[in-house]
Structures are given as structure tokens and as C-alpha cells.
């Protein structure tokens, strides 16, 4: 094993952010490997724009391109399974089908066999046949954002600009 890829267990000088995500001297547990990846990921920029609703978002491509090499170098396989499906009818306009799915994302450690499963729901709508794909993609990205603590840029509890301003002091 290459000496520079080895972590010395008694060293307090180890920098987890810059430590290579490669084979370790002593096998790490799955949670420790995922924590190392979390430390390496940082932010993922919003790379696409929804022109119709005028907002930026992170494509599935950029999320997967960021995480795949880190997961692979750590020996972690990922299995995405759609475990629930519900047809919600159509959108308010009646022009698009609306579905909800639940996905389970299994993180499988190829070295130890440990499995960690994270789940999320996703909703998708489309006028053709892509509603399920949109729902699965949204739910899968949500799992990755939450498992690796990737900021989504904004707080869903925040109503708007006025909430960020401090209240005026009473006289």
C-alpha cells in the first residue's frame, strides 16, 4: 500500500478535508467513509436554469459527477430503488400527470458489506411520460443533498426578504 494514502491512527495532524479518499491502513466503517466524502464535497454550484419558472438548480449530472468518483474511490456502491409509487392525478391545469414516488438509496461498503439506507419522497409532473423520472431524480438528489450536507441555497422556512431584516427597536 502506498505510504501517502495511509492514515496514522495516532496522528492528531490528519486533515480530513485534504486526506485522500482511498484505501486505508485499517478499514473504516461505512459511516466514517461517508463522513470523509462529506468533508471533501463542499458546495455544488447550480448549473442549470429553469427558464419557464426562472430559477437556477443543480442538475442530476453535476451532483453525480461530483459524488461518483468520491464514492467509487471509497469503495462505496450506490443502489437507488423506487419503493413506492402513487398516481396523484393531474396538475391544477389538468395538462400534466402528477406522481409521487419514494426512493431508497442504499450505500453499500464493498469492503465491509455494511449498508446504510436513506429514503426520500419526490413529486414529478409532465405532459408526456417523464413524471416518474422527474420524481425519482428529485428524490435521489434530495437524499444526496441531505446525506452529504450539501447546501441547497436558501431556507424553505424563509418567506422572503423581509424575514431577514431585523425588527425595528421599539421606543
Topology:
Layout: H1 30-41, E1 48-50, E2 55-57, H2 60-73, E3 76-90, E4 97-109, E5 115-126, H3 131-147, H4 161-164
Antiparallel strand pairs: 1-2, 3-4, 4-5
Helix pairs in contact: 1-2
Multimerization status: single chain
* Percentage of residues in helical conformation: 25-40%
How would you sum up the major sheet? 3 strands, antiparallel
- The total strand number stands at 5
Regions with pLDDT < 50 over 5+ consecutive residues? 1-12, 19-25, 162-171
Spatial order of the strands forming the largest sheet: 3-4-5
Mass-distribution shape: globular
Q: Which radius of gyration do the C-alpha atoms yield?
A: 20 Å
Give an overview of the whole structure.
The chain has 171 residues and is α+β, with helices and mostly antiparallel strands. 27% of the residues lie in helices and 27% in strands. It has 4 helices and 5 strands, in the order αββαβββαα. The chain has helices at residues 30-41, 60-73, 131-147, 161-164; strands spanning 48-50, 55-57, 76-90, 97-109, 115-126. The strands form 2 sheets. A 3-stranded antiparallel β-sheet has the order 3-4-5. Strands 1-2 form a two-stranded antiparallel ribbon. Helix 1 crosses helix 2 (60-73). 19% of the residues are buried.
In short:
The chain has 171 residues and is α+β, with helices and mostly antiparallel strands. The chain is 27% helix and 27% strand.
Keywords:
two-stranded antiparallel ribbon; alpha+beta; three-stranded antiparallel beta sheet; disordered C terminus; 5 strands; 171 residues; disordered N terminus
